[in-house]
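Minutes, structural biology subgroup

Action item carried over from last meeting: produce the structure token record for Cell wall assembly protein (Pedobacter ginsenosidimutans). EB confirmed the sequence was re-checked against the source entry. Recorded below for completeness.
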Amino acid sequence: MKKILKKISETAIKQGEFSFTTEQTETKWLGNQPATLAEIQEAEVRLGVTLPTDYKEFLLITNGFTTPNEHVDPSFSKASDIAFLKDVDPQLIEIWTENHELLEVAIKLARSIIIAGLGEEQYFLLVPPIIENGEWEYWKFASWIPGEDPYEGLENYFINVLDFLKSA
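Output recorded by EB:
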């Protein structure tokens, strides 16, 4: 995953279409310092979940990641800032709950953890499994997307971000 994140950083900075800090431009890196195991464990204890392995690996590479295009993709938060969507945007869950045909999505939104997009127009969510050792779901969620936009995992998502950047 680190190679993909590095390639996203280098490609976005080289294109020069977005604003980055001097440090990001000089280091050609849109990430932060890696999270410590203690920071990851604190987040897990605070949320009462064991986060998926690929997300923990991401945090050990970079504790947060600036989006190269804030209008299309959300910026990833530090481990200390991730939270349940219901605590960040309860109104969104309420809206989805009102439409009974979309109740299954609303139930998943109510359980989801926002790991990217705090204060932005779109979110990247981790949806915990209902059963122990079940599969986590990975969703990009935005007002202009009709429902959830699922991914096979974080690496799959970042490959899509890189492909989008290359095609821009």
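Discussion: Residues 1 and 57 are 8 Å apart (CA to CA).
Next step: EB to file the record with the rest of the batch.
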